[in-house]
Design brief:
By secondary structure, this protein is mostly helical. The protein has a single domain, classed as Growth Hormone, Chain: A (Up-down Bundle). It is built from 18 helices and 2 strands. Strands 1-2 form a two-stranded antiparallel ribbon. Helix 5 runs antiparallel to helix 15. The radius of gyration is 22 Å and the shape is globular.
Length: 484
């Protein structure tokens, strides 16, 4: 028999303010992901001169540390008892050091030796990622707890992704326009070493500010979130292992777990090499990269569509279609370049085409992300029906664990790839041999995206339809386990 929970019943649907305040919590993770995935490897290898594989190895070690802490934080959050609930205390504790870690990443002391610089990067990454786990796992769990309704859950996730994409587009635009602009001295603005400390400062303020904002503005929702009625067991290794094993016995969750592992391994490689593709393969400078802010139009297209398509299609079908379109979108452009069917680098038409494809990619990613997050909340209901436990924290932590651990391998592989092809560092992009650029495009734009066919095949095995979920909720409501 599982634990007993209590919560105050809502008198009506979730308000706009509640969804928006919860959505603000996407800011820290969005900014952190873009900064680390886009700039850290480039900054420490191309500008500071460290070997790309060494930098990738450090990033992978920090990510694995981060992944190991996920189930610990998940179990702690699921079992925590306080006057502020199970989630908010952890989010508040993490807020300040979260921003400090990312700021220090781009402000290493002058004159450090190569070994000391590597150690500095490792400490900063461990601090940033550790605090992000302490914040993100409870925040993601709240999103799954706010509503039990099949469609309203999707609405909650839509606000979360709306804020995330808004900041995910506007922050790079701000960085490329004001912090790393193209100038006469640095026509390729991302090569300007002096601009990176300001990038770290801006990112740090957004990480801390976003975490504090969502934590404080959603404190009034604590009564509506599940709390333990009886005194829960204290955090211990045995508790963490039991909670993790219990979650992994859910077959539908294990399926999602495996899919996330594969997607993270592929994505960890491609995303971290994205700035290399933009800089060396497409020949873009920061003046060009700013135009990719228009890809946000994809999000504005996606959000109205989500409410319509989820009423007509099953969530599984939506994810499957999105994945197929994303795969096609991922390999099309590089192949068009190889067959000389695109305008030359530097031609404004090329930028227009890539921005247009970016709009499609963003729309697909938003739809897929919102529906996937809503799908996880449905699996949590099935889990409660079978076990009596509500494990929002552990489920989100387990997915985060798999994604980070395997994505760490992807990051390392990306750095290894750059080392194996002897990609030059600290040189002008125009001096890189065409053969190396071709190999980079082949690996990142063709071979890696084709691996997405495997998780696409696995998505078809997901079984929780809207009808199945309705029967699950009906049985839970009959038992009264959700309200204790």
């Amino acid at each position: 028999m599982g634990p007993t929970y209590s919560r105050t019943q809502r008198s009506g649907p979730l308000t706009f303010k509640v969804k928006f305040y919860q959505g603000l919590g996407a800011i820290p993770d969005t900014v952190k992901n873009w900064v680390i995935n886009t700039l850290v490897l480039f900054y420490y290898s191309q500008l500071l001169g460290l070997d790309a594989f060494q930098v990738s190895a450090i990033l992978a070690v920090a990510m694995v540390f981060d992944a190991v802490t996920d189930p610990i934080v998940g179990a702690f959050s699921d079992n925590l008892q306080s006057r502020w609930g199970r989630r908010h205390p952890l989010m508040l504790v993490a807020s300040l050091p979260l921003g400090l870690g990312i700021y220090l990443t781009f402000s290493p002391p002058a004159g450090l030796s190569e070994l000391s610089l590597m150690a500095w990067l490792l400490v900063c990454m461990v601090l940033t990622r550790g605090m992000m786990t302490l914040y993100f796992v409870p925040w993601a769990a709240i999103a799954s707890e706010l509503s039990d309704d099949y469609h309203e859950r999707t609405s909650v996730m839509a606000y979360r992704y709306a804020v995330g994409w808004a900041i995910g587009v506007s922050f790079p635009l701000f960085v490329y326009s004001f912090l790393l602009p193209s100038t006469e001295t640095f026509p390729v603005g991302q090569m300007n070493l002096s601009g990176y400390p300001l990038v770290g400062l801006a990112a740090g303020l957004l990480l801390t500010g976003g975490a504090l904002a969502t934590s404080l503005l959603t404190l009034n929702q604590v009564p509506y979130l599940r709390q333990h009625v009886a005194v829960s067991e204290g955090l211990s290794l045995s508790l963490i292992l039991r909670d993790l094993v219990r979650s992994m016995k859910n077959r539908q969750f294990v399926l999602i777990f495996v899919i996330v592992i594969m997607i993270s391994a592929i994505g960890g490689t491609t995303v971290n090499l994205g700035i290399y593709i933009n800089t060396y393969f497409w020949g873009f400078n920061t003046a060009d990269l700013r135009w990719f802010a228009l890809s946000a139009l994809g999000a504005f297209i996606a959000f109205p569509l989500i409410a319509v398509i989820q009423k007509r299609w099953e969530k599984r079908s939506i994810i499957l279609v999105c994945a197929m379109v994303a795969l096609l979108d991922g390999i099309t452009l590089i192949n068009l370049r190889f067959f000389d069917l695109l305008p030359d680098n530097g031609d404004p038409r090329l930028l227009m085409i890539l921005v247009g494809m970016g709009v499609i990619a963003v729309a697909i990613a938003v739809i897929q992300g919102v529906i996937s997050a809503s799908l996880l909340a449905d699996v949590l209901d099935q889990h409660e029906l079978h076990t009596g436990y509500r494990q929002e924290g552990m489920f989100n932590a387990a997915l985060s664990f798999s994604g980070k651990a395997v994505s760490g391998i992807g990051i390392m592989f990306g750095g290894l790839l750059m080392t194996l092809i002897e990609f030059p560092t600290q040189v002008d992009p125009s001096q890189v041999p065409e053969e190396m650029i071709f190999r980079l495009g082949l690996a990142v734009g063709v071979l890696l995206p084709l691996l997405y066919l495997i998780p696409i095949a696995l998505v078809t095995r997901y079984k929780i339809t809207q009808a199945v979920h309705a029967s699950i909720r009906a049985e839970l409501d009959r038992r009264g386990t959700s309200e204790g």
